[in-house]
Amino acid sequence: MSRRSAPLIPRARQSIAVALAACLALLAAETSADTPQQREDRIKAALVFKLVKFVEWPVTALAVNDPLLLCSLGDSPVGVALAAVDGKPARDHLAQFRRIGGLSLADVKGCHVLYIPGGAREIGGGVPVVLRGRSVLTVSDAPDFARRGGMVGLIQGENKIAFEINLRNARESDLEPGASLLELATVVE
Amino acid sequence: MKMGPHRSRRARAIAFGLASAAVTQVALAVGDDPFFDLDLKEVLNLEITSVSKKPQTVSQAAAAVFVITADDIRRSGATTIPDALRMAPGIQVGQISSSVWAVSARGIDGRFTNKLLVLMDGRSVYTPTFSGVYWDVQDTVLTDIERIEVIRGPGASLWGANAVNGVINIITKSAAATQDGRVTVGAGGEERGFASVRYGGKLGDIGHWRAYAKGFDRDEAVIAANGDSGHDDWRQHRMGFRTDFAPGGRDSVTLQGDYYRGRSGESSTINFLSRPFNALAGTTQDVSGWNLLGRWQREISSTDSFTIQGYVDHTFRDWPAHLKEERDTYDAEFQYRTRRLAGHDLVLGTGYRLSRDRMGPSYAGVPANTLQFATFSPDSASRKLFSAFIQDDITLVPQRLILTVGSKLERNDYTGVEHQPNARLLWTPTEAATVWGSVARAVRTPSRIDDSGLVNQTVLPPFSTRNPLPLPTLLQGAGVVVSESLVAYEAGWKQRLTPTTSVDLALYRNDYDNLRTGRFVSPVCQPSGLPVAQYCFLLPGQTQVLQVLQAENLAKGRSHGFEIAADWRALPNLKFQLALSQFAMVVREEGNAFSTDREGSAPEQQLALRMAWNPRPDTDIDLLLRHVGELPMISEGVAVVPAYSQLDLRLAWRPLKDLELALVGRNLLDKRHPEFVSELLDVAPMLIERSVFGQVNWKF
Q1: What is its main location (chain B) (predicted)?
Q2: What CATH superfamily is the domain B32-693?
Q3: Could you give the count of Cα atoms lying within 13 Å of A20 in the half-sphere of its Cβ?
Q4: pTM confidence score
Q5: How many CA atoms lie within 13 A of B661 on its CB side?
Q6: What ipTM was estimated for this complex?
Q7: Beta strands at B453-460 and B401-412: parallel, antiparallel or unpaired
Q8: B29 vs A contacts (CB less than 8 Å)
Q9: Within 13 A of B247's CA, how many CA atoms are on the CB side?
Q10: DSSP assigned state of B62
Q11: Among A69, A58, A187, A70, which Cα is nearest to A134's?
């Protein structure tokens, strides 16, 4: 098979898959009753996606035409909700979604944002050192995440989702949260 | 053939999404979620739920909660809020005439049922006239409702008096979530025509707005006795707006208001103290009202926040042969929440409400000597209500065991201070299971009619079966009552059995004390005031006999029952939902008193089975099969309403993304059937008719 014709087939398959996914998603969306739990998960996913707009990555980690990679650990409902960002524009980049199975160096390589579900075993003893200084914005709904080595902790505010930012942890990883983001967050040490 | 890294990632993401959608029920999440299109401030302002005045997911609530979502309402084809409530377990909905419903939770149902609290966006909509709800004026564009939280059991420790048997919390979408235009028009048999339009937009960088207008014209039902038209056709229009601002990340401000005006008919059984004594008259009732509400929420820190809310509500009702009433309510509330103390989630609040009314007789369209069903003395009153509450969620075992204790203290003008405490224990042994139990006290404080009203129930003509005297006899409810109280014991279990099935079981026992009763006291002649026992009716100049039903609190009641709500997503596009309610009640009266809260006013069994199926992505097929058990006795002398089963069906098709055509059939199993009869006997018993209508929804 020649190199030229090869991509055509996957592309066709891919568009069928996308169309199918869209149909199923639509179908599912129509029949789904959005429970408060699901709603909460959707809000969290939207929040993770929206954070991207306010954070500066070093050029070494995110070049001009690079896609912006949002990673999610394991099979959490928030992760599933987040999968829908794949292909959406995120500032000057295109968002991509990736599910990762663990927090090893190989797993997180290339991730710009990493969502870790609150109950994940992997962060039971705090955020793994491997994530430090790697320009990966770590986000989790684990209790006190931003105080335990993480950068952005999702917390429940008055009937809403709010977030905490640990500025020191972010800056240590060469990430610069914008001023307007800090205005909306609770900054913790 | 090897895919590039980019493509394989994408394919994996899709595969992941698909698998998850099929397996985990969080299907909505993989859709093109509109939340992703909001900006950060708006996302931060999205509300999760308001079950207990603070964020809690339903599965975490130590109470019997059922949430009717926007999707449930749309797919039910309901055109009124009471109709939408029929799908909830533990809620009894009976239609009396085209614009009148009896709605209650866990028994004691009636047109004037007084143990259910109903809120719309934080505004209490029960009327202090009789502590009940005028359902005909509780409405909005139904597609703008975000959800209806149906809480069975007392909620008085947070929400205050009258949240005895349940709380219904109607919550509309935020303005940010209604940014498009939407037009709905429809018409059919019983629904002669209805239309609504809603449009939303941005307010600079800090907020959003929406405005709506709607109107409808409903056909009349049928009088059960003779098959004649019930004269109860109903027209209403309303308009309103909502704006939501987020001036800073810590603040969110909501301002909203509504205005409505309507006219509905009724086949009233009117009474006179002279010939013909009783008659059936087609009457026309005029209603109007407006309200304005503001709410400011501030996040002080990650642990502390407060909410300040205030509203003004004006209602007017000109109800022939009943009363003419005008009411202004002013309400202010403050609430503070803190999680500063480790292991405690504390919320406390205080409130003040002033309700001012002007009551009078209404003779619109009826003879000037018509006896009014309700008269008030004084005819104008201002009633104040002060309240304070505190509730603490104490984490006993992190993520596993939470104890909630709290109480509300209220001071009302009728009975003084009322104390309404509760204690709840929530145990989450696994992520998929929740077990809870609670003990709570609630009171139903006297209403205006209990305190300073007379109820002229009926006139018995001279020499009739129930009145052998030569004078007409007026049956009149009178007297002052104290608060009715309830101690409720509840337990529940919520379990996700498989990724596609879940079940929610609630058990309860309610012990009522001081239930309102009536007692026949010795009849007297009027105007002399001499007792009938002294043959006063033989004296000259006597016009009638007054038989007073002395209102007192001489009954105790006990009810128990259970409710099961089960969900089964058989296929990604096929969902079943079951709501089963079982209820039993015994009322014990002292001496010859009889309770006005009849145990037979609610069915012992109720069943609702819903199916939501999408044979194709652009087609909805929805089915609601309901069975409602017999109503043995709604009130003294009111006939039995037999058990009935009904079927509602909705078919919808979306030929274009923004266009939906729907065909709705309601009450399909019968041409007409009885559902409920007003316990005051003020309306002729009616039959509710089958209704089929078409509807077009267009987004722009």
Answers
A1: membrane
A2: TonB-dependent receptor, beta-barrel domain (2.40.170.20)
A3: 14
A4: 0.76
A5: 3
A6: 0.76
A7: unpaired
A8: 38, 41-42, 45, 77, 80-81, 83-84
A9: 6
A10: S
A11: A58
